[in-house]
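Here's a chain:
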Amino acid sequence: MSKSTVSGSCLCGSVRFRVRLPSIFCGHCHCSMCRRNHGAAFVTWFAVPPAQLEVLAGCDKLRRYSSSTHGTRTFCSGCGSSLFCESEKHPNQVDIPLANVEGPIDRDPQFHFYFDSRAPWVLVSDDLPRLGGPTGVKPLEAKDAIKYVAALAVRRIRDVMSASHRKRT
């Protein structure tokens, strides 16, 4: 992961961009807006200062959507790929979905944020820190982690029991 730049694009390839590293962070977002926008359980974002992002092709295809009172999401009008997210709350960074770049960046994902807003059907078994609360980045209390692990255990027990029941019938 020692490259100083990484390239990316939208699904149809009309929009191409280059990012100069280093990144500010890389993490998995579980907020409902990201889940809905990407149609996924969570989105892995990395961020860089705006000056480190260069759109190489397809500027005419870029469209912006105001997803909140403080944030916008930029997407390709041709294929609909979500490309960038910007917020007035973090004016010195632009967030980019890690899945839209070709190859690794300078860091692996470091944490889960807005974890307490995650989809109830998501099981996460890594040991990355889980952050949440109103800002999405407050360390969750131990009791929240214990509740999550307990729910995960119950779900796995139900799966095993269900599989065992199916074998008998």
